[in-house]
Design a protein that fits this description.
With about 450 residues, the protein is an alpha/beta fold. It has helices at about 30-35, 50-60, 65-70, 90-100, 175-190, 220-225, 230-235, 245-280, 310-315, 340-345, 365, 430-450; strands spanning about 5-10, 40, 45, 100-110, 145-150, 160, 170, 200-205, 285-290, 315, 315-320, 330, 375-380, 390-395, 400-405, 410-415. It has a 10-stranded mixed sheet with strand order 7-6-5-4-8-1-9-11-2-12, sandwiched between helices. Strands 13-14-15-16 form a 4-stranded antiparallel sheet, with helices on one face.
Length: about 450
C-alpha cells in the first residue's frame, strides 16, 4: 500500500466563522473559498479547551487534558503542576516516524514548560514566563525542526533550527506566516534532498501564529483589503457590544486587523498549496486546514478565547484528499482529540493507534461512509491548582450547556444556538429537563476522561 503525505496547517486563534465562503463574516479568504470546494468542510469542530497548549496537546496525543497533563497553557505559572506534553505519550508523529515517514514541524509549538534560567526573549521578561526551547528528545519524531515555543512579535518572529542549542535561536525580519510558508515550500520542493528523504512519505505541520494578538502586526497590503468597509459594515453581529463600551471599542479597534491577518494567512496557505501542485504531489497528499481555537475579540465581553462561546470554541476544519475524501460539507461534531486517530486511520495505520488514545477515528465517515456519530462535545476550562472547580460544559448540534463551579456553589447557563445563534440569552430556567439531560451526558464525558470535577 502506498501511504499518502500529510500537510497540516493551523493558524492560532482563527475562529470558525471567519471564512468568506460561509457568509457569516465580512472576511476575505479566496484560497479557503476555493479549497472548500475541493475537500470536506466540517462546520461543527470544537477546540474542546479553547486555548493554545491544551488544544495542541490533544492534537498530538489524542487524549483529553487529564490524561495528557496539559490542563492549561504551558507557562512558568503552570510548570509546578507538570503542565507540558509528556515524553512517554505516543503521539501520532511517533507512529509515522516509526513507519518511516519524514516529519517536519514549522512554527509555534508551545508544549514545553519554561524552566530556569529562562530563555532570554521578551515574553520571558515579566513575572509569567512563556517561551521555551523544545529539546530533540521531546520532539516526538519530528526530524526537521524550525520552531519556537510561543512568541508573538509577528513582524520579527524567532525560531530554533533543528540543531540549534537552547540559546542559539535567531530572529527573522519577515511576517511570520510568510516566512513559515517560505520554509514549508522549501520542505515540499526539497531541492537536493535538503529537508527530507525523497523516497519516503512525509508529514509536515505548519503552525502559524496570526491571527493571534497583537493584531496590528500585519502587512499593510492585507489591511488595505478592508479599507473600503466602515466600522458598521464590519460589526453587523448582534453580540458585538456597542461603540462607546469597553469591549465594543476594543472590537472596533481590532477587527479590521484581525480580518487582515486571516486574509494574510489565507494568502500564505495558497502559496503552500501552489507549491504542492507544482511538485506533482497534490493527489498523494492529505491537506488539513484548521485552528487551535477562536477569538471573541470583545464579543460577550470576552477579550479573546478560553470561554464556551462559539467565537472561541468553534474552529475551521477543511480536509482534502483527491479521490479519497468526497468534497462536501458535514455537521459532524468533531472534537480536538479525534483528529489524531482519524488522520492515522486515513494514513493507513489504524492498527498502530494506542489503546490510551481517547479520541475516536471518523476516517470512514470522512471517506463518505456511514458510522455512528457523537451527540455532543466536551468543553473544558481547568484550574490546575484546583481541578475540581472551574468550568465544564457540553456542546450539541443545537445547544451549549455551561456549568461554572466555585467554592461557594455553581452557576448554570444554557444557550439555544438555533433560536439564538449569538448566545445572548440564558434559557436554563425555561428548560430544566433539558439541563438535567445534558448534565447527565456531561457527567458521562467527565467520567470517561477521568475528570475530578465529576
Amino acid at each position: 500500500m502506498k501511504h499518502p503525505n500529510l500537510i497540516f496547517v493551523f493558524p492560532d486563534q482563527m475562529r470558525g466563522q471567519a471564512m468568506g465562503f460561509l457568509g457569516e463574516e465580512p472576511v476575505r479568504t479566496p484560497t479557503l473559498d476555493r479549497f472548500a470546494t475541493q475537500g470536506l468542510v466540517l462546520d461543527n469542530v470544537s477546540a474542546t479547551y479553547p486555548v493554545c497548549s491544551p488544544y495542541r496537546a490533544m492534537l498530538m496525543s489524542g487524549k483529553y487534558p487529564f490524561a495528557n497533563r496539559v490542563v492549561a497553557n504551558c507557562t512558568s505559572g503552570t510548570a509546578p503542576y507538570g503542565v507540558e506534553l509528556q515524553e512517554q505519550d505516543r503521539c501520532w508523529s511517533d507512529i509515522l516516524s516509526d513507519r518511516g515517514y519524514s516529519l517536519g514541524y514549522i512554527g509555534k509549538w508551545h508544549l514545553d514548560s519554561p524552566r530556569e534560567p529562562y530563555v532570554d526573549t521578551s515574553n520571558n521578561h515579566n513575572d509569567t514566563k512563556w517561551n521555551e526551547w523544545c529539546p530533540p528528545h521531546r520532539r516526538h519524531g519530528f526530524d526537521h525542526w524550525y520552531a519556537y515555543g510561543t512568541y508573538d512579535r509577528h513582524n520579527r518572529p524567532m525560531y530554533w533550527r533543528k540543531d540549534a542549542t537552547r540559546n542559539d535561536f535567531h530572529y527573522v525580519d519577515q511576517w511570520g506566516p510568510e516566512h513559515e510558508a517560505d520554509m514549508a515550500i522549501r520542505y515540499i520542493q526539497n531541492d537536493d534532498a535538503a529537508c527530507r528523504d525523497p523516497d519516503q512519505p512525509f508529514a509536515l505541520v505548519v503552525s502559524m501564529n496570526p491571527p493571534h494578538m497583537p493584531y496590528h502586526l500585519v502587512p499593510d497590503r492585507y489591511v488595505a483589503e478592508y479599507a473600503h468597509l466602515s466600522d458598521d459594515e464590519l460589526c453587523q453581529a448582534a453580540n458585538i457590544p456597542p461603540a462607546g463600551s469597553r469591549w465594543g471599542d476594543h472590537y472596533r479597534a481590532n477587527i479590521r486587523h484581525y480580518y487582515a491577518m486571516i486574509t494574510g494567512v489565507d494568502d500564505q496557505f495558497g502559496r503552500i498549496l501552489a507549491a504542492l501542485d507544482a511538485s506533482g504531489l497534490a493527489d498523494d497528499t492529505i491537506v488539513v486546514f484548521t485552528s487551535d481555537h477562536g477569538d471573541c475579540l470583545g464579543r460577550h465581553d470576552e477579550v479573546s478565547k478560553n470561554n464556551p462561546y462559539e467565537e472561541s470554541i468553534r474552529v475551521p476544519f477543511i480536509i482534502r484528499w483527491p479521490g479519497q475524501i468526497p468534497s462536501r460539507r458535514d455537521d459532524l461534531l468533531l472534537s480536538a482529540p479525534d483528529i489524531y486517530p482519524t488522520l492515522i486511520d486515513l494514513l493507513g495505520f489504524a492498527i498502530d493507534i494506542p489503546a490510551a488514545v481517547e479520541g475516536t477515528s471518523y476516517a470512514e465517515l470522512f471517506r463518505g461512509h456511514h458510522m455512528a456519530r457523537p451527540t455532543s462535545q466536551l468543553y473544558l476550562r481547568i484550574d490546575p491548582a484546583n481541578p475540581a472547580l472551574g468550568r465544564r460544559g457540553l456542546r450539541t448540534a443545537t445547544h451549549t450547556l455551561l456549568i461554572e463551579r466555585e467554592a461557594t456553589g455553581e452557576t448554570i447557563a444554557l444557550y439555544d444556538r438555533v433560536a439564538d445563534p449569538c448566545q445572548l440569552t440564558d434559557v436554563s430556567a425555561d428548560h430544566p429537563d433539558l439541563v438535567q439531560s445534558l448534565r447527565q451526558e456531561l457527567h458521562l464525558w467527565l467520567a470517561r476522561t477521568h475528570d475530578p470535577w465529576a
